[in-house]
Amino acid sequence: MSSESVIGVSGVEEDVLRCEWTVKDFDELQALNNRCITSPDFAGKRNAWYFLLDPNRNWVSVNLKDYEKVKKEFRAKTVFEILDLQNNQKWTSDEETATYGNGYFYRSLSLRSEAKQLMHSANGFKIVCIVTEMTEMSTICLPINTFNTNDSLCEFTKSMINCDQFSDVMIASNDGRVFNAHKFMISRSPVFKQMLLSNLIESNTSMIQIDDLSGDALEKMLRFIYSDEVLDDDSIDCEYLLAAHKYDLPLLTAKYGASLAKKANIENCIHLLILGEMTDCDELREPLLNFVALNRKEISATNGWLLLAKERPELLAKVVSMC
């Protein structure tokens, strides 16, 4: 049985601020400022920053505004870029990480000849600094499920099917049903794994839209992914086997294919044989080839035999060769 517990989580939160200063009238600014040219302020989530530029273009600095009010030190990464106004040419500095606060409030950069050349353009230039503030996150508590020590791993993962706890992705079927899922678990399917690696997810909703599966088939497939459980009854669910094959779950394909083979009769055997061929499922195809060969006389009088001759003549030839 499950009960509520907590887990501590800590880490570093990063806030990225792009400070971009476009200078179109440097000569005028130079004439008005004998010491330093000051940019407008750039406000981030926690702090504001601004540039100081040497009138002789020897250095530029990015500065923490109102640094005396910063009560807690924090680390920040900074990297400078000098660009022309068309962004066609660019000079980039090395990245530097420093601790700001407690008297340290700026990063100054001596400008190299390549950067100075861009800044001498009569058409103006841009100074950019990417500031990444890094803040230690406070420890937070999240609810988790704890399980009796007698519970197996399979029982635990099974309990997480369509569970919103720690869910980091949702999957929607073609009939509008939506399932909570977990990227680590669904990556068991190479097809889902490739979707995740290729970012084929709606960024705002963390949703994977599946247009070729009904909610029932998707639910059955997720149950297998989480628990190895194959849902089976007296029905023949072709979509379930096709889904297992398409989403590259060979164990599910083999298990359900073997189950379907036991349900073969004169009326459905051709359809099952074709299904086994479509899904490349030996556990279904081979028993059905034998069944059709043994019962050829009766089956040849059915519409299924005509279907086999039309749709899969190579299978028909194989059946005939076995008789």
Automatic annotation (TrEMBL):
The lineage of its organism: Eukaryota, Metazoa, Ecdysozoa, Arthropoda, Chelicerata. It comes from Leptotrombidium deliense. InterPro entries: BTB/POZ_dom (IPR000210), SKP1/BTB/POZ_sf (IPR011333), TRAF-like (IPR008974). Residues 167-234 form the BTB domain. This is Speckle-type POZ protein B-like protein. SMART domains: BTB.
